[in-house]
Amino acid sequence: GLISTVLRLASGSDSVSFWIYNTSLNVLEWKRGRWHLVHLNLWDHLPPAWRTF
């Protein structure tokens, strides 16, 4: 998907894979000339009953 592709591009490698949850929050920051993955699959904003993979 789009988010996984963006994360692979930010990592600079096609050898990594990401499993992204539905409606999860994923945060990348650009700091000190590099990408930093701050949050991956954060879903605290959803009630437990609404969380799906």
UniProtKB/TrEMBL annotation:
InterPro entries: His_PPase_superfam. This is Uncharacterized protein. It comes from hydrothermal vent metagenome.
